[in-house]
Amino acid sequence: MLRARSAPRSRSAPHILPGFSLSLGVSVLFLCLIVLLPVSGLLWNLGKLGPADYLQVMGSERVLTALRVTFTAAAAATAVNAVFGLLLAWVLTRYRFRGRGVMDALVDLPFALPTAVAGIALVALYDKSGWVGGVLDRMGLQVAYTWWGIVIAMIFTSIPFAVRAIQPAIEELDPAEDAAALTLGASPWQRFRLVALRPLLPAILTGTGLSFVRSLGEFGAVIFIAGNLPYKTEIASLLILIRLDEFDYPAAAAIAGTLLAVSLVLLAVINIAQTRLQSYLRVEG
């Protein structure tokens, strides 16, 4: 009787990327040199401060005021970006019109434009001598060298993060679902809330979160339009530079380390919330 031949052992599937071990090693080395090495320098200077010294630096009125100005302005800019970022992404994705390519390229302009140039442009626009600032000044409103100027600068530099995060999610929406909801008698608000907005929530969360983190670290565009008045329009990034000019590296590291820790925590929370929200929407869907 012939014995059935044993099936040949299956070989492990080859890696998609040739030379995986070498590529991974080079990637890790690059990450360490570009990201971890500067962060380790920051942590080394931060380690020179004891807990009491750290609390003394961060508990000063000037630092607390700078943090309050930074966080409140970043929150206001993020709220604006959440609304208009969704609107811009929707228009660029769902409509075809003349000048759409130019409009789409303008969204990426803050990525390519140096932030100092953006700051100078915003000052020229919103200062009392500017054509927008002049009109607002006659109305009794002032933008340049105020908290509102900081918000506008943060909106300008962080709006692409919201648009580019939401845009791919809009492209994945199925128009047939909207048509089905229409045939079932759903109102325009119900169609927008349940068919369009609900699947976009993870992307909106990611885009607005990245916008907020980006606004926290904004420097170049803000310092030109803020006026940099201590206890009024001074942001945390500028205060770090001032401490460096004073050769107070531990104090600068304390402020920078705090911003870094907040940013890392926010990014982690955003990733966890996005994953859970996507799972919830898949289950409910």
UniProtKB/TrEMBL annotation:
Membrane topology according to the record: Multi-pass membrane protein
Keywords: Membrane, Plasmid, Sulfate transport, Transmembrane, Transmembrane helix, Transport
Primary localization class, coarse: membrane
Domain ABC transmembrane type-1: 67-270
Membrane-crossing residue ranges in chain numbering: 20-46, 66-93, 105-125, 145-163, 249-273
Keyword DNA repair among record annotations: no
Pfam family for this entry, one: BPD_transp_1
Source species, domain of life: Bacteria
Keyword Glycoprotein among record annotations: no
PROSITE patterns: ABC_TM1
Places the protein is found: Cell membrane
SUPFAM superfamilies reported for this sequence: MetI-like (SSF161098)
Annotated InterPro entries: CysT_permease, MetI-like, MetI-like_sf, Sulph_transpt2
Subunit structure: The complex is composed of two ATP-binding proteins (CysA), two transmembrane proteins (CysT and CysW) and a solute-binding protein (CysP).
NCBIfam families in UniProt: 3a0106s02, permease_CysT
Family per record: Belongs to the binding-protein-dependent transport system permease family. CysTW subfamily.
General function of this protein: Part of the ABC transporter complex (TC 3.A.1.6.1) involved in sulfate/thiosulfate import. Part of the ABC transporter complex CysAWTP (TC 3.A.1.6.1) involved in sulfate/thiosulfate import. Probably responsible for the translocation of the substrate across the membrane.
Protein name: Sulfate transport system permease protein CysT
